[in-house]
Amino acid sequence: MLDKYKQYHIKRIIEATNGLYNQKDSICHKCHNTKGDLNCFFCYCPLYDEPDCGGNYTILLNGLKDCSDCLKPHEEEFVESWLLKII
Fold first, then answer.
1. Half-sphere exposure of 70 toward its Cβ, with a 13 Å CA cutoff?
2. How far apart are CA 70 and CA 2, in angstroms?
3. Fewer CB within 10 Å, N- or C-terminus of the chain?
4. How many degrees, rounded to 5, is the angle at CA 16 between CA 49 and CA 73?
5. Comparing C-alpha atoms, which of 19, 46, 42, 41 is closest to residue 30?
6. 45 and 64 Cβ atoms separated by less than 8 Å
7. In 21-81, where do the E strands start and end?
8. Do the beta carbons of residue 42 and residue 21 sit within 8 Å?
9. pLDDT in tens, 10-29
């Protein structure tokens, strides 16, 4: 029964964080060039420090990852899978 409620709450979290960058006076800023909806739960990707994160990124001249072309952490399925791991 606990799993049923855990899944329910995860779905509520995802619904609440979809499209936050569109809200007036939001602290979430759109950092990707997309017209689609984004889930903003992970503003900072939990896989950023992973050398093989599986996302679409480039390495800048200063050695940092530029993840502006990656939408992986903004997909509902990704957020749900991570929330299931930590809850």
1. 20
2. 34
3. N
4. 20
5. 19
6. no
7. 58-59, 65-66
8. no
9. 999 999 989 888 877 777 76
